[in-house]
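Sharing a chain and its predicted structure for anyone who wants a worked example. Both blocks are below, sequence first, C-alpha cells second.
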Amino acid sequence: MSSYAAYGEANYSFTNWLTATVGARVTHDSKRMTRINVFDGLVATDSWTKFTPKVGLKAQVNPNLMAYATYSKGYKAGIYAPFPGNADAAITALPPENVDAFEIGAKIDWFGGKLRTNLALFHNKYKDLQIGVLTSGGATGAVSADERAQGAELEITASPIRNVFIYGSFAYLDTKFTRVPLGSASYPALGDEQRFSPTTSFKIGGDYDIPLGNGDKITIGANYSWYDEQAQGFPNVRNMMGSYDLIDARIAYKPENGHWGVELAGKNLGDTRYWTYQSYLAGYARYYALGRTWSLRFKFDI
C-alpha cells in the first residue's frame, strides 16, 4: 500500500474577534492485494484519489466566551474483505468510506475562571462506512453501509476553592444506519444503532490536594461514570447489553521537586460485570472487562 497527500490551511481575521479557517487535503491511496490460503494467488490492485475540504468560523465574543462552527469532510481508502465468499469478492475492494462532519460549540468561563463549560453539538453523515460483520458463511467479513451519527457533549471543570478540582461530562449520542447491506442475518438492520454507542453517558469526579507544608502534597481523587444500554453486535435486537456504572478512586503522593511519585489506585470498585466485545466465531462468546482491580505505581523522571 502507498499513500500520498498534500494539504494546507489558512486563517483570515475579519475583525479582532471573528476568524475564518479554510483548509483542504488531497489524498491518493494505492493498494495491491495478493490472496493466500483462501483463493490463493488471486491478485487485485486499486487506487483512489479524494479531495477533502474544511471550513470554520471562530468568534471570540468576549474574554470569557468563544463560539465556533466547522464543516469538514473525511475519507478512508477502500478495503478488501478478509474472508470473501467467492472469487469476485476476493478481488473486489469495498468503496472508500466518506463522512461529512458538522459541529458547533462554545467554550465559556464563569466566575473569574473558577468554572469552565465546553458544549459541542455535532452531526456526522457516513457514506459507505466500513464495518466488520459475520458473513453468511460463518466467517468474519467487511461490508459497507450508510450511517447518521449526531449528538451533544458537555464538559464541566471547576475549582471552587483552593486545592479542590471538580470535573464532569455528559454525552448524548444518536446513531442510526440509513442504508444496510443484504445477505446475512448478522448484518445491521435498517435503523440499527452503531455498536458500543450508548445513547447517554456521564461522568463526575474530583480531586483534593492536601498540602503537607513543605511543598509535598497528597492528592485524593474519585470518579463515577454511567453508561446507557448499548448494542454489542448486529442486529441490535439480539445483541444488547444493559446499562452499567463504574467507580474509580486513587490516592497519590508527590514531593516538592516533582521528580517522583507514588499512587495507589482502584478501578471498577463496584466490581461491575460488563462485556467489551462479543464474538460468534467457533460459537457464541462474550469477552468481559476486568472486575475490581488495584494498582500501586511508582513514577520517576529520568
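Comments welcome. Residues 87-91 form the longest helix (5 residues).
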